[in-house]
Amino acid sequence: MAEYGEEDGFMLPVDDGLFADTFSDDSVYKFIGQELKISQVFSANLGVAAPVWDAALHLCRYFEENSLNLKGKRIIELGAGTGIVGILAARLGADVTLTDLPLAVPQLQSNVSANMPSSGWPSVAPSVLPLSWGQDQHVFPMDWDLVLGADIVYLSETYPLLLDTLVHLCKDRAVVYLSSKMREEHGTPGFYGDTLPQRFHVKLEHRDPTQNINIYSATLRGKQ
Ligand SMILES: C[S@@+](CC[C@H](N)C(=O)[O-])C[C@H]1O[C@@H](n2cnc3c(N)ncnc32)[C@H](O)[C@@H]1O
Fold first, then answer.
1. Segment 115-164, tens digit of pLDDT
2. Hey, which of 86, 123, 144, 217 has its CA 20 to 30 A from 176?
3. Where are the beta strands (DSSP E) in the chain?
4. Which residues in the chain come in under a pLDDT of 50?
5. Quick check: helix, strand or coil at residue 167?
6. Which residues 6+ apart lie within 8 Å of 164 measured at CB?
7. How far is the CA of 155 from the centre of ligand 1 (A)?
8. Interatomic CA distance for residues 170 and 223, integer angstroms
9. Is the minimum distance from the CB of 165 to ligand 1 under 6 angstroms?
10. Considering the entire predicted model, what is its pTM?
């Protein structure tokens, strides 16, 4: 709605929508009987961390269609964005740590709080922590069951950092599940075809050719 502001005696039209650099969109998603209220905070700062990406919805659907048992699993999610994947896992009884760059942590925390069941979290409340790939992974333990990531393979300069992070987190026993839009122009197929296989056994678990989204599992090579 247009309002008028006074400046040096002139009445200037002020469109408050024009200058607002932040707005949020609240959506409800349903997977595996869980209703998830997810807020997407669009602002200049958050960038790609703001929306729920299709790859995240595919990963949630993959858990649903394959009846993956997440109860009691120790799970860390990388580049969690809105947190929809990790929050679903926590609602199903997993012990979840959601991570992203520091700027995305407030959005993650607020979505976690908004999705606490009235009876409390079935296992433990999810943790939300900053984790920048290639920098912070050593602060995190290595004893995860699952490492999850949705649409986190899109910046080729981060691929070596992401690989180092995955190697650290998977030293004990973790299985990685990554869901990706396969963007040729961002080198995504190369990450799965060349970079990841340097250290991991990689398996294509699911492909949606219409949306060009693949889901891979990976386990660290050379563990006895
Ligand atoms: C395309 S978004 C995907 C968000 C969410 N996983 C989803 O699918 O809806 C990519 C995410 O990776 C995070 N990210 C990018 N570079 C990163 C880095 N170097 N370390 C940690 N997170 C990073 C971004 O902040 C963002 O949340």
1. 999 999 999 999 999 999 999 999 999 999 999 999 999 999 999 999 99
2. 123
3. 2-7, 10-15, 22-31, 34-43, 74-78, 95-100, 127-130, 146-150, 175-181, 200-208, 213-220
4. 1-19, 224
5. helix
6. 133, 134, 137
7. 10
8. 10
9. no
10. 0.90
